[in-house]
Design goal:
Order of helices and strands: HHHEHHHEEEEEHEEHHEHHH
Shape: globular
Radius of gyration: 21 Å
Helix content: 40-55%
Strand content: 15-25%
Number of strands: 9
Distance between the termini: 22 Å
Largest sheet: 7 strands, mixed
Number of helices: 12
């Protein structure tokens, strides 16, 4: 498929070809898809089909998506220069020593997008004082915002109810950014929890450390009266989507660098297909990060990247290419971080399911 193709294959007549097509077509807009990636994703799409897709979907090929003139220029973040340098260091030393710093830099991008000047200044002061933060996203209620147990009320006084699990560095952090529902809506709102409050909150470590004992996850549960200036709302409801669209390509580059480091240490064995897939992921992530705009295709592209990465790490583990269980656990955890394969597949499907060709 050429790098400027934007359509699914109308001749596709099997489930894998049909249901993987929207994700592959989105990425093919900027990076050609190698056969090893296409076959991996077609097999994954078949495995991820849910009952509704099998029973009720028309199974018609997806139609070409028209070009869009509606684009939002992405903000420029000076911290991305440091993120790029850190990706290089991960390739030399592994993700472990740099994980907390890497995700802290991504968090700085979120606050840069959604925070006021005072909020950003406060965070910089905390970091300069040696404090660390954590980003709390995963909710035990379920993957959809409508299922979340964490929310903030819409009327004064603001009540912040938080139940978050598996947050990186949560047990050691001095402050937090917590993503919650606004009232009973589907609107996501990042809320800043300052040190004087977060330090008083009981937290619990979750499971064993990852990445050679460098990264510990934790659970956070509390209810407090929030101050209006805690809300990171400058960017509006779309800011979390734009943030994840910017952040995911950099996460993919960091994960590829970590796998290269593992391979250099003899801790994973890369065959020709895995090598080609990782090279594709790296190129596609770089191309995605270079686009500089948010448009109709951006979410599909970022989630397709994560889906392909998930399946690449999973295939490496299931094929026996990763001998040590701690490395297997790390790679499997990456397949759940910032979007599981099913979540990525489902969201891409939901955005495209009405754009179909008529059956021949």
């Amino acid at each position: 498929m050429s790098s400027n193709s934007s359509s699914a294959n109308p001749a596709a007549q099997d489930f894998g070809s049909i249901f993987a097509a929207p994700a592959l077509a989105a990425l093919a807009r900027h990076t050609p898809i190698p056969d090893s990636v296409r076959s991996l994703m077609q097999a994954s799409a078949i495995r991820l089909l849910d009952s509704g897709m099998i029973i009720e979907d028309s199974h018609a090929p997806f139609a070409q998506v028209a070009e869009t003139k509606v684009q939002t220029a992405l903000p420029h973040f000076p911290v991305l220069h440091a993120v790029k340098e850190l990706v290089g260091q991960i390739g030399e030393q592994g993700f472990g020593p740099h994980a907390v710093n890497f995700f802290g830099m991504l968090g700085a991008m979120m606050t840069g997008m959604a925070g006021t000047e005072k909020q950003i200044s406060d965070i910089h002061a905390w970091v300069d004082a040696g404090m660390t933060g954590c980003f709390c996203m995963t909710d035990p209620g379920g993957p959809l915002a409508s299922q979340w147990q964490s929310s903030i009320s819409t009327s004064a006084p603001l009540q912040l109810k938080v139940n978050k699990i598996w947050a990186m560095n949560a047990s050691k952090a001095d402050f937090a950014i917590v993503v919650v529902r606004r009232g009973n809506s589907m609107i996501l709102t990042p809320s800043l929890v300052p040190p004087e409050v977060f330090r008083t909150i009981a937290r619990k470590e979750s499971g064993q450390p990852f990445l050679d004992n460098h990264l510990m996850l934790g659970n956070v549960s509390f209810e407090v009266e929030a101050q209006p200036d805690w809300l990171l709302a400058k960017g509006g409801p779309i800011s979390p989507k734009i943030f994840l669209t910017i952040a995911r390509p950099w996460l993919i580059q960091a994960l590829c660098a970590h796998v290269d480091w593992l391979a250099g240490k003899g801790r994973v064995k890369l065959d020709a297909a895995s090598t080609e897939r990782i090279a594709f992921l790296r190129s596609a992530a770089v191309n995605q990060a270079a686009l500089g705009v948010f448009d109709r295709f951006s979410e599909d592209q970022a989630m397709a990247l994560k889906w392909i990465a998930n399946e690449t790490w999973l295939q490496m583990v299931t094929s026996g290419a990763v001998p040590a269980m701690n490395d297997q656990r790390d790679l499997l955890s990456f397949t759940k971080m910032e979007g599981s394969s099913y979540r990525c597949f489902l969201e891409i499907y939901e955005r495209n399911k009405r754009m179909r060709l008529a059956h021949a």
